[in-house]
Amino acid sequence: MADAAVKGKAESRDSSAAEAERELTDGFHLVIDALKLNGINTIYGVPGIPITDLGRMAQAAGMRIISFRHEQNAGNAAAIAGFLTKKPGICLTVSAPGFLNGLMALANATTNCFPMILISGSSEREIVDLQQGDYEEMDQLAIAKPLCKAAFRVLHAADIGIGVARAIRTAVSGRPGGVYLDLPAKLLSQVMDAAAGQKSLVKVIDAAPAQIPAPAAVRRALDVLKSAKRPLIILGKGAAYAQADDAIRALVERSGIPFLPMSMAKGLLPDTHPQCAGAARSTVLKDSDVVMLIGARLNWLLSHGKGKTWGEPGSKKFIQVDIEPKEMDSNVEIVAPVVGDIGSCVSALLEGIEGKWPAPPADWTNAVKAKKEENIAKMAPRLMKNSAPMDFHGALGALRTVIKERPDAILVNEGANTLDLARGVIDMYQPRKRLDVGTWGIMGIGMGFAIAAAVETGKPVLAVEGDSAFGFSGMEVETVCRYNLPICVVVFNNNGIYRGTDANPTGGSDPAPTVFVKGSRYDKMMEAFGGVGVHVTTPDELKRAVDAAMGSGKPTLINAAIDPAAGSESGRIGNLNPQSVLRKK
Q: Which residue, among 346, 323, 337, 358, has the nearest Cα to 248 in the 3D structure?
C-alpha cells in the first residue's frame, strides 16, 4: 500500500511537470495565426480595452498595424482595402462606442459590396445578458446583424479558426460585403494546447468560387443586344472589383458599343477611349434603346432606370450582369438577366460575339461622338481659367492634368461640388484608380480611403476633398504623417458647405448653418504634425504644389482657396434636398 502511494505521488509529479512543459497558446495568438494563415497581414483599427494587446501581438508577429484616430476612418480604410485586394479588409475596434463608430463603415461596406470584417472586443455574455452594467456593456452582435451580411460571435478558443474562416468566406463569396466578428474579452485570454490550437485553424479554400452563367441566359442577352439600334454598356464598380479588366475591355471593343463608366469604374477603359460616352451621359441614357449593365445597379445614381433621365417610358430594354439574382427587376424589368460572377459572365458573352458581330449603327455612334465633342469643347475654356480666387472648374482643370501625367496615381474624391464636378472633369486611365463615396454618397471616407490606398498599393495618392467632407476625417492627417505615407490632400476651401456666402436670416451673430470660419488654413494642420502645408490661390499655383507633393512622396496638404460664391447646393443632386413651400413664399 505504501509503495502504491509513493508510486501514485511520483506519477502525479511527473504529470504536473509534463503539463508545465506542454506548450500553450491563447485566444490572442489564435486570432493572429488564423488571419495570417489566410493571407491577411494588415489590420486597421484603434487600440483600447480589450484589444490593445491583440494589436501589439499582431505587430510582433509581423503583421502591419495601421492605428487611426477614429474607428470610422479605420473601418473605411478596411472597406476600401477589400475593394482593392478582393480580400476582406480587417478593422479592429474596442467594445461599445468603438464598435458603434466602426459600424457605420461596416454598413457602408455592405451597401457598396466591399469585403470587410469588423472585429470588436466585447463584454462577457453572462453580464450582458443579465444587463448587470459591465464596462461598455452592449449586445453588439444583435446590433450588427441588420447592417451586414452576417455576424458571428466566438466564445471558445478552439472555435476561433472556424469563426475567422466563416467571416472570410462570407465577406468575399457571392456579392461581397461586411461581416461582424464579436470577440468577448474572456475569449482572448483563454488558454489551450498549442498543437490543438494550430489544428483548429482553417485555411479557407476557394473562398469566392466562380459562378458560371447559364448558357441560355448568355444567348438571350446576346440576342437582345444584337437587335439594338442604339446600344449602351454601363460599367459599375462591381466590374472594377472583379478585376476582369482584359475581358471587359475586349467585350467593349469587339462589340463597338459606346460605354458609360460609373465613377468607380472609370479607368477600366480610359475615359479618353473613343467609345467612352462619359461626356455624353445625358444623351446616351435618354436615347439608347438597349442597355447592358455590367456590375452596375439601377439605383438612385442611375435614376432607378426610369423617369425623364431615361426618355420615354418603355423605350428601353435592359440586360443586367450581376452575381446577385435578387438584383434583377429591382426597379424595372430586366429582359435578359445574366447571373454569375462578372469575370465568368463577361468571358461567356465575349465568346458569343466572336466572329461576325454587327457593329452598332453608324448614325448612333456618330451622334454620341458629336455630343461628346460638343460638350468637351464647351467645357474646355472653363478648365483653362486661371483666376484668383479659383472656381471649381479652374482648380479641377489643373488636377485633371496632374492625373493625366501620373495615370498610376490613385485619386480619392469626396465633397458636394468637389465630388460631382470632378467625376466629369478628371479623366482616369487605369482601373481601380478612382475611389469615392459610392452608393450611399456619404462624406467622411476621404482619409480612410487614402491611407488604405497608399498602404495596399504603395502608389502615390491624391485626395481631393471639399472643406466640409474633409472635416469628417481631417484629424487622420496625423496618421498620414505618423506612417509617412505618400498622400497629397487638396482641400477645396470655399468657406462652407456648398458655398461660404450664406447669411443668418435673423441678422443675429450666429453664422448660417452652412458657413465655416472664413479663410481657414487647413494646411497648418499638416504642418503641425510634421508634414508639408501649402496655401494656393490660383490653378497654376495648385498644379505646381501638387506636382511637388506627388514628386516628393511626402505627406502634404494643400489649402486651395476657392471663391466662396462658387458652387451650388448639393452639387448635381440638389433635387434631393426638399424645398420648403413656406420658405419660397
A: 346
Give me the CATH code for the 24-200 domain, please: 3.40.50.970
Grid coordinates of 426: 478628371
Amino acid of residue 457: T
Average pLDDT over residues 298-326: 95
Reported as a single tens digit per residue, the pLDDT across 330-350 is 999 999 999 999 999 999 999
Give the global pTM.
Answer: 0.94
Can you read off the three cell numbers belonging to residue 480? 498620414
Residues counted in the chain: 585
Residue 160: in which H helix or E strand, if any? helix 160-172
Q: Which CATH number fits domain 215-369: 3.40.190.10, 3.40.50.1220, 2.170.150.70, 3.30.43.10?
A: 3.40.50.1220
The segment(s) of the chain belonging to CATH 3.40.50.970 are: 24-200, 384-576
DSSP code of residue 278:
G
**H/E stretch holding 399:** helix 392-405
pLDDT class of 387 with cuts at 50, 70, 90: confident
Query: Please, which residues bridge with residue 390 across strands?
Result: 562
Q: What is the pLDDT of residues 126-144, one digit of tens each?
A: 888 889 888 888 999 999 9
Q: Which CATH class is domain 384-576?
A: alpha beta
